[in-house]
Amino acid sequence: MLDIKLIREETDSVNHALSRRNADFSGDLEKLNALDSERRNSLQNSENLKSRKNKLSADVGRLKREGANADSEMAEVKSINQEIGEWDEKTSDCENQIRDLLLNIPNLPDPAIPDGRDESSNQELRVIGERPEFDFEPKNHVELAEGLGLLDLKRAAKISGARFAVYKNDGARLLRALINFMLDVQTEENGYQELYPPFLVNKESMTATGQLPKFEEDLFVMRDDSLYLIPTAEVPVTNYHRNEMLAEDELPIKYTAYTPCFRREAGSYGKDTQGLIRQHQFDKVELVKFVAPEQSDAELELLVADAESILQKLGLHYRVVVLCAGDMGFSARKTYDLEVWLPAQGCFREISSCSNFGDYQARRGNIRFKRKTGKPEWVHTLNGSGLAAGRLFVALLENYQCADGSITIPPALRPYLKEREALQQ
User: Fold this and answer.
1) Considering just the CA atoms, what is the radius of gyration of the chain in Å?
2) Active-site choice (20, 163, 264, 391)
């Protein structure tokens, strides 16, 4: 959530920054400034009346002590109390309207990221590893997985519908191995604390991280309870410290968590309908950080490196891109995507998105920290996929496939699969 003071004092610069997202928020900013002015006026009137009431109350006490009549002063106090109530109610109404508007305004893009309307304007920063070469026509992950009995998409559709999968036998073992491998790397090598959070969260949690109210149509909600299935572990892990005051010497705090993730993928029908690329339910290991403001830019770079370490250990070919302002998520101010090479598609596909949110989520979730000297401040939050397990499953199958349809297991993963060197029939 943006700072109303920033909007009030730097309306033009805020409007310019938001316009980089290819949307017009000028009308919302105008409404916010009008409501803010009304709120401050109501608050000032209430404070003036309270000051007058305090003086009158003192006069009432003095008059009574002197045995004098205080009826007039008491009547005025009663009238003032009613006026104070009216002004306080107006102040509260303005504050609620301001919050509702602010919840629907995205974060300001970092000035350093490129302009652009969509992914075509994202900038490639680096390419890592060698692209695999095959002396045969590479198969896609569905052909490979079905040939080895790793997936059953038809029965998944019977059970649940489109965009679900049943991993079976070595497929289930491989998915579990990938999740354990990623968690071990992040906790044992990269210094993250592991959490295993709830998969159902309340409305306040969804609001704090920016899923509500903007993206309600993309969420699965319980019929009889006000609970939502999480679209990512970012939601419960970020909310782990909601409404808390952290200590400066605790920062940075780094968490990792495995969860299944649930998304309706509203508006994406017709895209990636085959296989595991875009599912309603998928598995992911998430990385979340709480950091001091002066640390956040450097911590984003470290977060990206931690996500990259998984791809590097598995020997996968990938690239890092910085997203343009028009392609960036609602709550983010700067985002790097890691894109892994998929031979069957002949292109890079996103496998991790790493973002710095600044104080945007902290303001929504009331997450602050206190320095040893000075007033409490908003923390900065960051998160990234470390990685999406289903897409990593796809990348391994396609990049390590052999002419006979078997899959070579990368050495780093073999301890998780009883030292097997390949998956084969």
Assistant:
1) 27
2) 391
- 350 catalytic? Reply is yes
Beta strands 367-370 and 227-229 are unpaired
The set of residues, in sequence order, having a beta carbon less than 8 Å from that of 134 and lying 6+ positions away, is 343, 401, 403
Q: Which domains does the chain have, with CATH numbers?
A: 4-102 (1.10.287.40), 119-423 (3.30.930.10)
Q: Of the residues 278, 349, 414, 420, which is catalytic? A: 278
Tell me, yes or no, if 278 is annotated catalytic: yes
pLDDT on residue 255: 98
Q: What percent of the chain has pLDDT over 90?
A: 94
DSSP 221: B
Enumerate residues 6+ apart whose C-beta is below 8 A from 60: 70, 73, 74, 77
Query: Which residue among 86, 143, 265, 350 is the active-site one?
Result: 350
Q: Which pLDDT score is estimated for 325?
A: 98
Check residue 273 and give its pLDDT. 60
Task: Calculate the CA dihedral of residues 225, 230, 231, 232 and round it to 10 degrees.
Answer: 170
DSSP label at residue 189: I
The single residue of 263, 333, 363, 364 carrying the catalytic annotation is: 263
Catalytic choice (353, 363, 364, 368): 353
pLDDT of residue 374: 87
Model pLDDT for residues 332-358, shown as the tens digit of each residue: 999 999 999 999 999 999 999 999 999
Q: Please provide the DSSP assignment of 245-271 as one string.
A: EEEGGGPSEEEEEEEEEE---TT-TTS
- Res 373: pLDDT: 87
- The dihedral built from the CA positions of residue 359, 7, 96 and 334, taken in this order, carries a sign that is negative
Q: Which residues have CB under 8 Å from 140's CB, separation 6+?
A: 274, 275, 344, 345, 398
Q: Is pLDDT above 60 for 187?
A: yes
Predicted TM-score of the model (pTM): 0.93
Question: Is 52 among the catalytic positions?
Answer: no
